[in-house]
Task: inverse folding
């Protein structure tokens, strides 16, 4: 009789059955690789079609010149990265890009802006973009920075499905990566997004020189959000010359895959997105990420300012692996 793979029983606190401790997540991350992947596959198949991957296309609707100092970001005004500043795009140009993304097979369109947060006048224009992109039959997502009172409601009224706002890293490391805001500011915006009834897309970045314990702390923090996010992007740092984090030692690809698996196990119904970093990732590593429960990618030759695999390359990879693009799942998509 074949021996069943060992199920990893993480160290959960007794009084808080839904809670994840950092040690519990770290024990997942440290498990024998095959056991971890086996468990992640089981969880994945309980909640999702095994071979479907959602395709999201990103567009930078306002580029560069950001006043924040995020140590990873090529769009911060204070770093000299060669990114050209571009003002907020016109509604027409954004809708044209969304139409092209839909034509290429994307089901979600995500609009990103290099702001600390949107000014009211800009928000009204973004709301118009959301309205028109939604009317094309695409799911809509926006990432605009911190929101003020009432702004999340305006985006909801325009038809925004998801708001992306990442916790980025272990709370204990946050101050080393970003000094112009605190992680608590992020939590405030996430609360506003939730209260407005918009789905939360919230994840982080790995490969910033953090330890496995730091990665466990990030995953535990995300999984303990109540409720946990509907969509969890796991970004591998894209190193851009001129940013403080350029030159950070590369993360071992197996550690990246382990982080995806831990996100899948701790947030079973979330869309786990294999996000930034695919341009320099082997097909084999990407396949392991899908095996570990990733079921969403950014699709199209550019992320916001940095390269992403061209659509043909992804189509070939999907053919090799027998993967299919996920259809839009209707109202409530992402909640599993
Ligand atoms: N300015 C807004 C904000 O920070 O929330 C929205 C745009 S910002 C570029 C969106 C996310 O992109 C960040 O939270 C971060 O997680 C991710 N990101 C930025 N630069 C990155 C890089 N070089 N590598 C990986 N992810 C990155
Ligand atoms: C997310 O978590 N990753 C995307 C999206 N949300 C907005 C952004 C990745 C940006 C990578 C660096 C760049 O292209 O500028
Ligand atoms: Fe600005 Fe967002 Fe980049 Fe930070 S991640 S510098 S807030 S664009």
Result:
């Amino acid at each position: 009789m074949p021996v069943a793979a060992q199920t990893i029983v993480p160290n959960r606190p007794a009084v808080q059955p839904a809670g994840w401790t950092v040690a519990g997540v770290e024990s997942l991350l440290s498990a024998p690789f095959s056991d971890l992947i086996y468990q992640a596959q089981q969880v994945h198949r309980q909640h999702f079609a095994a071979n479907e991957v959602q395709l999201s296309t990103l567009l930078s609707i306002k580029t560069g010149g950001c006043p924040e100092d995020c140590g990873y970001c090529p769009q911060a005004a204070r770093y000299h990265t060669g990114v050209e500043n571009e003002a907020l795009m016109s509604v027409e140009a954004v809708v044209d890009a969304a139409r092209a993304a839909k034509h290429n097979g994307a089901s979600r369109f995500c609009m990103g802006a290099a702001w600390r947060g949107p000014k009211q006048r800009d928000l009204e224009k973004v709301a118009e973009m959301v309205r028109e992109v939604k009317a094309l039959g695409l799911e809509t997502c926006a990432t605009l920075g911190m929101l003020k009172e009432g702004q999340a409601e305006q985006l909801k009224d325009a038809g925004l499905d998801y708001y992306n706002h990442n916790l980025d890293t272990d709370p204990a490391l946050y101050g080393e990566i970003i000094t112009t805001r605190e992680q608590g500011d992020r939590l405030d915006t996430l609360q506003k997004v939730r209260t407005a009834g918009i789905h939360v897309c919230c994840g982080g970045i790995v490969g910033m020189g953090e330890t496995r314990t730091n990665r466990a702390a990030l995953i535990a923090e995300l999984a303990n959000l109540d409720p946990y996010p509907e969509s969890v992007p796991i970004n591998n740092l894209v190193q851009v010359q001129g940013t403080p984090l350029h030159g950070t030692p590369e993360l071992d690809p197996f550690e990246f895959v382990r982080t995806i698996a831990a996100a899948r196990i701790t947030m079973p119904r979330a869309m786990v997105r294999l996000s930034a970093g695919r341009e320099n990732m082997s097909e084999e590593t990407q396949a392991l990420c899908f095996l570990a429960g990733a079921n969403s990618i950014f699709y199209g030759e550019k992320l916001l300012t940095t390269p992403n695999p061209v659509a043909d390359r992804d189509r070939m990879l999907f053919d090799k692996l027998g993967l299919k693009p996920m259809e839009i799942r209707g109202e409530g998509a992402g909640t599993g």
Observations:
- Residues 72-73, 75, 112, 114-115, 143, 145, 165-166, 168, 205, 235, 237-238, 240, 276, 304 surround S-adenosylmethionine (ligand 1) (CB under 6 Å).
- Residues 120 and 151 are 8 Å apart (CA to CA).
